[in-house]
Amino acid sequence: MTSFIQRFLRLAVLPLFVWVVALFTVSCDKSPAANEASGTASGKPKVAVIISTLNNPWFVVLANTARDRATELGYEATIFDSQNDPAKEAAHYENTLSSGYKAVLFNPTDADGSIANVRKAKAAGVPVFCMDREVNATDAATSQILSDNYSGCVALGQYFVKQVGEQGKYVELLGLVGDNNTWNRSKGFHSVVDRYPGLKMVAQQSADFDRAKALEVLEPIMQANPDIQAVFCGNDAMAMGAYQALVSAGRADKVKVFGFDGADDVVKLIAEGKIAATGMQFPKLMARTAAECADKYLRGERTFPQKTPVAVELVTKDNVAKFGDYGRK
Length: 329
Prior knowledge:
11 helices, elongated, 47% helix, alpha/beta, single chain, four-stranded parallel β-sheet
């Protein structure tokens, strides 16, 4: 009888014991990723980083720096990529507001079209801090930390005239037409260059701040205007696309390219004498400032300037050694 009881215990109790241990192990060994997905990772307040596009290294730096600084300050920060699509941006706002995010660090897709999203957040009591790009309203975002695009391109325009001369033909590649940065940069550049009647703009066309599109746009313009001497680009991604188009056409040594942003690949080409100049924005500074402002707001501060300008510095072959890693070395 004793032998029978021992056999019964082995067959009935042991599997139950194994099942209990396995259940306990799964419960205790739940991974951080799984916790995060369930929304119970840390209990920390959540901050959203909503970025116009991550299809550009410059915006990746902006996004990562904002996220990392918010994390350092004690928040759970998540990046959302709008892919330059206002509909995706609106969906991100719906998500963040319904998911309990306490603040938004925001890089808008459209200066006018993004206002409604920011106002929706404000109505829900969620502060929005714009980085690099602005919205055309002074009663929506809590604060906007922006490069001084106009002044930066005044300096670029002055250098453009020195390099190209007071006569010649050039092309301008514009960014997104719904972004104020596009027009502030263009206006700053033209405030200088248009004073010289001998400088003729043979084409002005949008390439959406995109490298591949800039290459695509510039190729037929070059075919129609084989004697251009320069290309002014509203950002460095387009400057790289323009440079690639010129290399493919065998004209990179005859046409000067000017960009704007301070992206590492362009800074390196300036050092090599292959691109003429760029305007160095400071994405890390803007992103850190936005995260720190959000932290101050969530700790009770309510007085913020509507716009905080960040100076842009001209980068040329004469001073390029001072710059790198999206800022000054």
